[in-house]
Amino acid sequence: MATAPRPRTTTRDPEELAHRLTAWLATHLPGARTVNVTVPESNGMSSETLLFDIEHPEPPLRACALRLAADPAAYTVFPVYDMPRQYRTMRLVAERTDLPVPRVLWLEEDPGPLGAPFFVMERIEGRVPPDVMPYTYEGNWLHAASDEERERLEAASTGLLARLHDQVPVKEADFLTLPGDGSPLRRHVRAQRTYYTWVVDGLPRSPLIESAFDRLDELWPRDEGEAVLNWGDARIGNVIYDGFEPAAVLDWEMAALAPREVDLGWTVYLHRFFQDLTVSFGQSGLPDFLRRDRVERRYAELTGHTPRDMEFYTLYAALRHAIVMLRVAYRQAHFGEVAVPPDPDTLILHHGSLRAMVQGSYWQGPGVAR
To answer: Cα–Cα distance between 18 and 286 in angstroms, integer?
Structure first.
């Protein structure tokens, strides 16, 4: 992992973006200009982030962050980037919950100024558990923390989900209803099937991903429960922390109406993904952090809702993550960074754990911390 080529995250020129951003800002805040425009090293491969300060004679704010839809000509990770939807979601969560969501300032739906729609929000200072190298690896602030400090962060982060799910009136989140017929969960899974079909269009299909979809059908919950507003990308890598307390909840592009367990499964599995990867490279990682049993128990205590069918939902999370990873790998191949192997399943970094989930052995293995 340490020597693997890191996928490129942008095809845009930061200096050109800075000039165009300054021109746009002048039409919304006369006399203002942007300074200190930077692209963070942790920039994702879907929406892009720019950090900048505003200089203005009467500055009500200075530090900002901008989320810019991916360049449609750059082999995007997702087929659609709905910035108004994300902007509206953040406003709703800010208005109807006590979650620390950055205040959104402007939405620009016209792709003309920067080449794609974007929105601007306040920038929150703090620290984020790293993805590269993962926070489960030695040498970062979360790994170096004490057990008690990580326990505080885990409790506070689980509390974010509990409060989000309990506090947002579902009727006010109707705009997040996914298209099609059937229950919210049926629609959610169908949307992932559609995404997978888009990813493999004209490219090798993944037998493992397709077997995981079949396994989902076998494990389908008898009682799907109520639908709530799901964060979508519910993981600690999308939270800015002040010490060990959440200061800002970020990345709402995958928000949707779905059962509570969709978010919980994603939270549990995305940590397992990093933990399993770390163990495979000879480190112990953080085996007692974000354990499935503790997350489920704490969530039940906070909400009165006992998570159920979590084998289904953690498999679903691993499946969704596999589709994203396959698209990222095909994107790398598009830019000549990797070659497509004879077995496309090997492009999925966690193909071993996904296969174990399909076979029903992942959570029952010796020494596995639930």
So the answer is: 40
Q: Helix (H, G, I), strand (E, B), or coil: what is residue 289?
A: coil
Answer with the residue of higher pLDDT: 59 or 97: 97
C-alpha atoms less than 13 angstroms from C-alpha of 151 in its C-beta half-sphere = 4
Backbone angles phi, psi at 63, to 5 degrees: -90, 125
Cβ(319)–Cβ(354) below 8 Å? yes
DSSP annotation string for 9-37: ---S-HHHHHHHHHHHHHHHSTT-EEEEE
Q: Any residues with CB less than 8 A from the CB of 239 and at least 6 apart, and which?
A: 128, 129, 157, 160, 246, 247, 248, 249, 250
Question: What is the C-alpha to C-alpha distance for residues 244 and 145, in angstroms, rounded to an integer?
Answer: 9
DSSP category for residue 63: E
In the chain, the percentage of residues whose pLDDT exceeds 70 is: 93
Residues 6+ apart with CB under 8 A from 274: 131, 134, 135, 136, 285
- Residue 41 pLDDT greater than 70, yes or no: no
**What are the catalytic residues?**
233
Instruction: Give the per-residue pLDDT at 162.
Output: 98
**Mean pLDDT across the chain, nearest whole number?**
92
DSSP classification of residue 38: E
- Which residues contact residue 304 at a Cβ distance below 8 angstroms, ignoring those fewer than 6 apart? none
What end-to-end distance do the CA atoms of the chain give, in Å? 25
| pLDDT surpassing 70 at residue 225 | yes
The residues, ordered by sequence, that sit 6+ positions from 105 with a Cβ below 8 Å of its Cβ are: 61, 64, 119, 120, 121, 122
pTM, two decimals, is 0.93
Q: What is the pLDDT of residue 299?
A: 98
Question: Which of 39-43, 88-92, 102-106 is the least confident region?
Answer: 39-43
AA letter at 4: A
> What is the crossing angle of helices 310-334 and 260-280, to 10°?
60
Rounded Cα distance, 23 and 19, in Å: 6
